[in-house]
Write a structure and sequence with these properties.
The chain has 17 helices and nine strands. With 359 residues, it is of the alpha/beta class. The strands form two sheets. A seven-stranded mixed sheet has the order 5-4-3-6-7-9-8, with helices on both faces. The chain has a two-stranded antiparallel ribbon with strand order 1-2. The longest helix has 25 residues. The N terminus is likely disordered. Strand 6, helix 15 and strand 7 form a beta-alpha-beta unit.
Amino acid sequence: MTTVSPAPAQTSAIVAEPATAPQQPAPAMRLRELVFGAACAAAVRAAARLGVADALGEQPASAEQLAAQLGVEPRPLLRLLRALSCYGVFAQNEDGRFVHTSMSRLLREDDPHSLRYISLWCTEPWTWDAWPLLDEAVRSGGSVFHELYGKGFFEYLHEDAQDSAHVFNQAMTTSSEQSARDVAELLDLTGVTTVADIGGGQGHVLASLLEKHPDVRGTLLDLPRVVEKADARLRVGGALAERARIVGGDCREDIPVEADLYIIKNILEWDDDSTRRTLRNVMAKARPGTRVVIIENLVDDTPSMKFTTSMDLLLLLNVGGAKHTKESLVARMTEAGLTVAEIQPVNAYLHAFECVVPA
């Protein structure tokens, strides 16, 4: 993952980062810290909603100064900042004033690697209702969402929780834009003239690839309501529109696109039936020798397992889905008839599986 640039030279001395790793707490204290994990998540959410990181500039500021700027009470803000500083989100100087850290900068709206909307999405109101039912999801093996709200997850978002749906869309857009750059850097398109982004959302991966490779043409396929909001670069009048085609459709039903390279990113995690249908449809359309690149988060053999295993549990709760292990994903590809050629990391939390349609 790309790191945040350091602060300017005149302020670098006030950006507090630990010089050495702190001593690990005893197991009993560590467990106490873990069971209070909700407090940490809630504190990050509060800071993101209040805009604390945006209010804090390059100079140290006291809780009173920040409170006046944000229109909140100074004492509770001090308590919030103190708690976050324990986790490296902000840092407190010896004089009591607060400064940015690498993590707190990621809560800024204007940071190019901002995780503000991801932080909000993972702590939306419905998550606090769902997490306590994790034991029920483990017993049943399925989503608890219908039990909570009487309807499916996406139906609930779009009908009953439009604010949460907006946060979801912003979070997915941010995440997709950031990972799209990494995918474009990774993939070698030598010999490729046409690319199909299957279930590609708003098409950020496709747009990044077309920008980098001016001789390549591409097609974005996703549900009609999704591609209506496709990346402006791909739409009529956009910089890439002449080389891009946007198709509304469900990849589980049909893939009406021929290409030299098919990209499937983060859509093989909802359920096994959807995965099988999608891969079957790719195989039905793709010519022998066609490349298929499948990009997913893994819950094994990755430096980000705390993150990916947590996403895996959230998927269980909200849609009954699951993140893959390397073995389970290779098994799905092999079962579909694909030949897996190479597996390589895209960044700290994504892996790319290079496959080919056999002759």
